[in-house]
């Protein structure tokens, strides 16, 4: 079956401050092909072009060269319905707490669905659904003030605001930075459910390799604005050397196995799940 | 026995929001000795950032005392000395960097202390060398990576020659590489005798400390070496926390292989343990 990818990026280039002495190639020919319902991680060192790339997905940036096609919409075409695109693609920024502006939590989350012109009952249902999804109790939290929240809670509110739009593609830039381990695990769990049960396509940028190993069906690794490697976590983490050269770490599990391998032990270096990695060691003893 | 550098005595604190008081810290007492490396962990909203802001008088107790090197933080007259003894680095380096050239930024605090120019140069050289940023001294900070900016922020604090460095989630916005850069600097400073107090969500970072304090609902509920703390996996999970990947692996392997040491907390310890056990494999008769 030849399925139409929900997002296709071909040879995308972007130059900041083009034509000035400060000209900088943020993207120098990146390609991605993502099918509906996939969970994709984009990783790379600071400055590798990850953030520039994901800002293209909902049309915040338009391709200077190359193609970006989202569910049949060609972003190079200036006449596309940008509102429709933004409804399809929900983008959560790196410091989502900055995107909170209402005084009351419930109002902030309702803003998007309300602007979509949904009936009030539907808006309420969506707010409730989104809040429960990120782990905020609707009854308890909807009338609380947004400014008296901790950093982690603000993050959840901002994420709920985007989820309430029920996008087809959810794009997240560092979704768990600054969350405590349990909030992080719960959020990842919920995103995974959303991905598997509701078939929402998820694209996320992360520095946390444990998180990438847990979540991603496939990984795209960027370096200097180009594709470095891509594939399943097994395929990518086996390239530990190459990743390290570009200042990208691997999960601790892979790290430990790599050290063992360097000492001459016969281990599979890409057994990145904790259970598997522990089994590799048990098999040695 | 060394005198404590920081004494926290029955500290309680509450935030006042619209006449209502929100209690955050309850009757907290602990001491930090010169040269100690203390990590504070706790889930989002547990009060750990509020606690860290008490350590150099950014916040002062509602009841109880914080005494730095003999000065009570409630005494305004000694605030200058306290801030000089205990330097603070926050989550976002952008909030802490004020000048347009790295060198000037590091000099900022010194100018306020009216340090003579010759000594100022000496201190800036020392501070930038300590964090490995000497070659960037004439660069504008906004062109640096997150990890580099955070190192500049640390240099600004080091130039004041503090006895204690407080890091409030200083690595949580950084990638693995950036985080390792900071941890290396912090470890070096600690080796040279500076006391470190670090608030973090990264359990592998906590494993490096000499002591871990766990905060829950504004109270200290555990205080011990990382090895002691990370044996209590169930309790930590209940508190929304976690144990390092290395500990998880050690425990998994131990459950199959009783000789394997289950109290390991670092990646390289796991490797050493495997080497130790495999060398012993010669049948003993």
Automatic annotation (TrEMBL), chain A:
InterPro entries found in the cross-reference section: AAA+_ATPase (IPR003593), ABC_transporter-like_ATP-bd (IPR003439), ABC_transporter-like_CS (IPR017871), ABC_transpr_CbiO/EcfA_su (IPR015856), ECF_ABC_transporter_ATP-bd (IPR050095), EcfA2 (IPR030946), P-loop_NTPase (IPR027417)
A GO MF label: ATPase-coupled transmembrane transporter activity
GO CC annotation terms, alphabetical: ATP-binding cassette (ABC) transporter complex
TM ranges: none
Subcellular location field: Cell membrane
Main location group: membrane
Lipid bilayer topology: Peripheral membrane protein
Enzyme Commission (EC) number: 7.-.-.-
EC top class, as a word: translocase
Keyword flag Nucleotide-binding: yes
Pfam families recorded: ABC_tran (PF00005)
Entry keywords, A to Z: ATP-binding, Cell membrane, Membrane, Nucleotide-binding, Translocase, Transport
Location of the ABC transporter domain: 10-249
Subunit structure: Forms a stable energy-coupling factor (ECF) transporter complex composed of 2 membrane-embedded substrate-binding proteins (S component), 2 ATP-binding proteins (A component) and 2 transmembrane proteins (T component).
Function according to Swiss-Prot or TrEMBL: ATP-binding (A) component of a common energy-coupling factor (ECF) ABC-transporter complex.
Assigned protein family: Belongs to the ABC transporter superfamily. Energy-coupling factor EcfA family.
Protein name: Energy-coupling factor transporter ATP-binding protein EcfA2
Source organism of this protein record: Fictibacillus solisalsi
From TrEMBL, chain B:
Keyword vocabulary terms for this entry: ATP-binding, Cell membrane, Membrane, Nucleotide-binding, Translocase, Transport
Any one GO cellular component localisation term in the record: ATP-binding cassette (ABC) transporter complex
Subcellular location: Cell membrane
Organism superkingdom: Bacteria
InterPro entries with a match to the protein in the record: AAA+_ATPase, ABC_transporter-like_ATP-bd, ABC_transporter-like_CS, ABC_transpr_CbiO/EcfA_su, ECF_ABC_transporter_ATP-bd, EcfA_1, P-loop_NTPase
Annotated membrane topology: Peripheral membrane protein
Domain ABC transporter: start-end pairs: 6-242
Chief subcellular location: membrane
A Pfam family the protein falls into: ABC_tran
GO molecular function: ATP binding; ATP hydrolysis activity; ATPase-coupled transmembrane transporter activity; cobalt ion transmembrane transporter activity
NCBIfam families in the cross-refs: ECF_ATPase_1, PRK13648.1
Family listed: Belongs to the ABC transporter superfamily.
Protein name (Swiss-Prot/TrEMBL): Energy-coupling factor transport system ATP-binding protein
Lineage of source species: Bacteria, Bacillati, Bacillota, Bacilli, Bacillales
